[in-house]
Write a structure and sequence with these properties.
single chain; about 120 residues; alpha/beta; 3 helices
Length: about 120
């Protein structure tokens, strides 16, 4: 019987990181990291990132699917504390959480899922 949790496996998915700085200026964030699992749609993304920054999040990580949106580069310039992880292949929510946690530098992390909103 094995007692090793499956979360100890390294991330199998490959990805690209755009924007942000890992661990801030000092190399390690001592506060809260927010990991946002983005599920598509671009409705209110700037407002969401602005609210997270106002809440005092030290690090914001947005995990994006393989069909990443065209607005990631402009958003990374506007919000320098937001780091975008763009997956090269589809991944389930657990894999996305593991990738976000591995890339996170904070002592605490909050994982939030943003569902697609269509009008």
């Amino acid at each position: 019987m094995s007692t090793i949790p499956t979360t100890s496996k390294p991330a199998a998915a490959s990805y690209t990181v755009v924007g942000g700085t890992k661990g801030g200026r000092a190399g390690r964030v001592r506060g809260v990291s927010i990991i946002l699992l983005h599920r598509g749609g671009v409705v209110n993304r700037p407002e969401i990132f602005d609210e997270f920054e106002k809440l005092g999040a030290d690090e914001i990580i947005s995990v994006e699917g393989p069909g990443a949106s065209y607005d990631i580069e402009p958003l990374s310039m506007k919000f320098p504390r937001v780091r975008f992880i763009i997956l090269h292949a589809p991944a389930n929510p657990g894999e996305k959480i593991n990738i976000g946690m591995q890339d996170s530098s904070g002592d605490l992390a909050a994982v939030l899922a943003r569902k697609s909103v269509v009008s």
